From TrEMBL:
InterPro entries: HAD-like_sf (IPR036412), HAD-SF_hydro_IIA (IPR006357), HAD-SF_hydro_IIA_CECR5 (IPR006353), HAD_sf (IPR023214)
Organism (species): Vitis vinifera
Gene3D superfamilies attached to this UniProt entry: HAD superfamily/HAD-like (3.40.50.1000)
Protein name, entry field: Uncharacterized protein YKR070W
Pfam families assigned: Hydrolase_6
Gene label: YKR070W
Amino acid sequence: MKFGPFGTVLRWKNRAPLPSLRLLSQLHSRSSFGIAFDIDGVILRGRVPIGGSPQALRRLYRDYGALKFPFLFLTNGGGIPESRRASELSELLGVNILPSQVVQGHSPFKNLLKRFENELIIALGKGEPALVMSEYGFKKVLSLDEYASYFKNIDPVSQYKNWTTEKIFNSKANTKDLVPRYDLLSDRVKAAFVVSDPVDWGRDIQSSSKLLHSLCFFRIHYLVADVYIGYALNFINYAN
């Protein structure tokens, strides 16, 4: 079985007729395999489907819309919630994509919810990093733009920059009008999550470096490894 421009995902030497495949799928409630698709350059180029990707994806569904074979989209991109990405993919590809079928670069952060659910955390990156973490269930989230607004001189070279981040929190007018949601002296930041690549690299690297100096490096490394191993095992269980 070939899926157009993606190359061969599955191949059988003795290809069974379609009725036999239907019978096989009825006998087994779960498929013996799952498929992970990349998005950019494989399924889509920008917002345009590549080749026959929509038609190929439809072959993974039964006539009445249920999944015939489990599949998901795996991408190192992000910055928006999985629910929104699933909605966009559904619209562009003409099939019903669930949020659980979208795994983005920051999706493994869900596995840290129990540890940091009620702790103050910082979400870095472009897009809507704070919204992403909030949708995962984290209760106290600040974007780095919001965090930077608490400190007057956190970016000493800001006056020389000819760009701004998407949300401007560090102007004098906004700083006066901003009502602090957290007291950063008593409510200490316990973790920083890089949700996507930042817009202002200089400010974000400087700010996150200072944050990391207050955290325990060996715990961070351990948590990252544990999260990705756990997420890989979850996908294997889902596919089987």
